[in-house]
């Protein structure tokens, strides 16, 4: 097994996406750091802090192809951070006098945190794009199956009828909420980090704030009121949001996996020859997408607490907690991307067996409609008496293996108030869907 399956040649296609892996790769990180250094030089040139020619040379040289990743790796093992090697490599690539002005007034964490924010920005964009596809797919499923009646289940047992469209709307509603949360978290989290050694920017004198605001504008980020070297709420909020998103996807995967059981067989992952197959059982169609959504979600949920524990940072620069974020956050993004890849397939191409859903409604010979009968009878004799009478009828139906309507039709408590025609209507699952249609409409209205 690989150290990080999301980066594995064998497992990477199951636990991540190519785009997210590239973003959080060594080359991706170094390119973001170079972009921050180049932006800093341009801003400082405009403010007259460094020569314009130096800023131009630094910007031209700030390409990952111009530096050696193995050299940066070797230096990082010695120094503990990659920024010193990046600065030296960028200076050599820029050449001449420009090397003197690389990293002017900055500190290591300024560059790494700002680079991380750029990674988060691009990573959130990738996630939101895939989330949009899932939302659209589930919306279409909700429309298509608005009238596909099935058993609603509580505690894994038949409870009341619902529609599959309603089930999809219930899956969909939290995802629409997450889309709003992404808008909110971007405003708070996509913030430049630039504070110098302890956050005071003393090395830049009176121009420190102007540089910070200029750097934020150059990178398309917000400028914080205070440095956040040791205030990690921004990155923790992003990690937490991805944890919630994975939880919502895991709920969908759990439901689909249960619907795929041989004894249920009401919905299935889209079939591809060989997908979900067994090395020994030719008939198998295992819920592969669901399994990897759940595995990725559990991985994310194990890593989010590491982000929370890293919030306890000492004084103006932390001793250890900051580095633990490097272990957790890239994996959180990668695993979330992997879960979304699988969920997009489910949302778009889930196979629904409406006939099997109808058959499933009849498995208990009408018991699923007991509440409907009880509520109608309650209007005549009161709720407690009605509940007792229908419960007794359900027990007789189970013991005698008879349809509920047949037992009710000869019940001395029921028949004076509900005739056979009324009982037939009350035990029709399509007649007792309550707000299911309205829920679908409200959720779909949010998509529009």
What key phrases describe this protein's structure?
Fumarase C, Chain B, domain 1; 3 domains; Fumarase C, Chain A, domain 2; 448 residues; two-stranded antiparallel sheet; mainly alpha; elongated; Ribonucleotide Reductase Protein R1, domain 1
Quote the beta fraction: under 5%
CATH topology of the largest domain: Fumarase C, Chain A, domain 2
Morphology call: elongated
Number of domains: 3
The whole-angstrom Rg is: 30 Å
Mean pLDDT: 94
Number of strands: 4
Uncertain runs: none
Number of helices: 18
What's the CATH H-level superfamily name of the largest domain? Fumarase/aspartase (Central domain)
Quickly name the level 1 CATH class of the largest domain.
Mainly Alpha
Largest sheet: 2 strands, antiparallel
Report how far the terminal alpha carbons are from each other. Answer: 45 Å
**What is the spatial order of strands in the main beta sheet?**
1-2
**CATH architectural designation of the largest domain:** Up-down Bundle
Structural class: mainly alpha
Give helix % range.
55-70%
Provide the succession of SSEs: HHHHHHHEEHHHEHHEHHHHHH
Description:
There is one protein chain. The protein is mainly alpha-helical. It folds into three domains: 20-104, Orthogonal Bundle (Fumarase C, Chain B, domain 1); 109-209 and 220-364 and 434-448, Up-down Bundle (Fumarase C, Chain A, domain 2); 367-426, Fumarase/aspartase (C-terminal domain) (Ribonucleotide Reductase Protein R1, domain 1, Orthogonal Bundle), CATH 1.10.40. The chain has 18 helices and four strands. The strands form two sheets. It has a two-stranded antiparallel sheet. A hairpin with a 2-residue loop joins strand 1 and strand 2 (157-163). Helix 11 packs antiparallel against helix 12. The longest helix is centred in the first third of the chain and has 37 residues, at 108-144. The radius of gyration is 30 Å and the shape is elongated. The model has no long low-confidence stretch (mean pLDDT 94).
């Amino acid at each position: 097994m690989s150290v990080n399956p999301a980066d594995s040649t064998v497992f990477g296609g199951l636990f991540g996406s190519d785009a997210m892996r590239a973003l959080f790769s060594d080359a991706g990180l170094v390119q973001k750091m170079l972009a921050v250094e180049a932006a800093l030089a341009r801003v400082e040139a405009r403010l007259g802090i460094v020569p314009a020619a130096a800023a131009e040379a630094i910007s031209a040289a700030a390409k990952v192809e111009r530096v050696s990743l193995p050299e940066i790796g070797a230096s990082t093992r010695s120094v503990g951070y990659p920024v010193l090697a990046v600065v030296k490599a960028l200076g050599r690539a820029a050449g001449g006098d420009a090397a003197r002005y690389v990293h002017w007034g900055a500190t290591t964490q300024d560059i790494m945190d700002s680079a991380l924010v750029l990674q988060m920005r691009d990573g959130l964009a990738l996630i939101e794009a895939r989330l949009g596809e899932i939302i659209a797919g589930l919306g279409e499923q909700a429309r298509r199956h608005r009238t596909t009646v099935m058993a609603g289940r509580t505690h894994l047992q038949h409870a009341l009828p619902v529609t599959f469209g309603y089930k999809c709307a219930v899956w969909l509603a939290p995802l629409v909420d997450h889309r709003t949360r992404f808008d909110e978290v971007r405003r708070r989290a996509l913030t430049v980090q630039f504070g110098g050694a302890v956050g005071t920017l003393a090395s830049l004198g009176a121009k420190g704030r102007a540089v910070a605001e200029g750097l934020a504008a150059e990178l398309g980020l917000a400028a914080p009121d205070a440095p956040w070297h040791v205030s990690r709420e921004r990155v923790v909020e992003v990690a937490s949001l991805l944890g919630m998103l994975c939880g919502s996807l895991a709920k969908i995967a759990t439901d689909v996996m249960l619907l795929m059981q041989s004894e249920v067989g009401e919905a299935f992952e889209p079939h591809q020859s060989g997908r979900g197959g067994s090395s020994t059982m030719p008939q198998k169609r295992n819920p592969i997408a669901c399994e990897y959504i759940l595995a990725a979600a559990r991985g994310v949920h194990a890593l989010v607490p590491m982000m929370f524990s890293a919030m306890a940072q000492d004084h103006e620069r932390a001793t250890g907690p900051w580095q633990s974020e490097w272990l957790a956050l890239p994996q959180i993004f990668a695993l979330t991307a992997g879960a979304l890849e699988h969920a997009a397939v489910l949302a778009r191409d889930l196979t629904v067996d409406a006939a099997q859903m109808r058959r499933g409604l009849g498995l208990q010979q009408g018991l699923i409609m007991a509440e409907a009968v009880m509520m109608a009878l309650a209007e005549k004799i009161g709720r407690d008496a009605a509940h007792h009478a229908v419960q007794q009828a359900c027990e007789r139906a189970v013991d005698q293996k008879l349809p509920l309507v047949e037992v009710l039709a000869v019940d001395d408590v029921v028949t004076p108030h509900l005739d056979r025609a009324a009982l037939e209507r009350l035990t029709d699952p399509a007649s007792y869907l309550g707000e299911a249609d309205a829920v679908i409409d409200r959720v779909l209205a949010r998509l529009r």
